[in-house]
Amino acid sequence: MLYFLITGLLVGISFLANQQKTVKGLKIAGKKMKNILPSIALMLIFVSILLYAIPEAYISHYLGSSNKTLGVVLGTLFGSITVMPGFIAFPLGGILLEKGVSYMVISAFTTTLMMVGIVTYPLEKEYFGHRVTIIRNMLSLGIALIVALATGLFFGEVF
């Protein structure tokens, strides 16, 4: 609620400073939101159905704290092959945490989701080349695993 209040206040200040630019900016933002809203809604629906369809026992068993290595490997794999914006991924991490998934697995999932791009490989290869894309993804994967291990150590999930 506070963010909406601050945003409204800043838009009001912007409007007072320059009416035309503020209106133009709001129109551009509205058009962009209109363009991405269907894909965001579709992704939210898909994730919701998936979480509903998969029993909590499976989520806890495979991603939970019973087998940390398997959970981190699966979280890393799912994160690497999934394309999802952060504002959906991080609340999803909170839902998974409530379902018994460890911080280490959520860390592996969200970090690889943001840094490793198996699905986006063809596009990335086109811009950066095969070698740079492979190196970047491998380094990102290594960093994600280090972050997951550090998260596990911080929350007492390792050792």
Description:
With 159 residues, this protein is mostly helical. The protein folds into two domains: 32 residues; 104 residues, no CATH class. The chain has eight helices and no strands. Helix 5 runs antiparallel to helix 6, helix 6 packs antiparallel against helix 8 and helix 7 packs across helix 8.
Distance between the termini: 40 Å
Q: Figure out the total of helices.
A: 8
Number of beta strands:
0
Overall pLDDT: 88
Would you list the SSEs in sequence order as H and E?
A: HHHHHHHH
Query: Biggest sheet, in brief?
Result: none
**Low-confidence runs of at least 5 consecutive residues:** none
Break the fold down into its secondary structure elements and pairings.
Elements (H helix, E strand, L loop, with lengths): L1 H16 L1 H35 L2 H8 L4 H14 L4 H13 L4 H13 L5 H8 L1 H25 L5
Helix pairs in contact: 1-2, 4-6, 5-6, 6-8, 7-8
Key terms for this structure?
159 residues; 2 domains; mainly alpha; globular; 8 helices; 83% helix
Question: Can you give me a brief rundown of this structure?
Answer:
The chain is mostly helical.
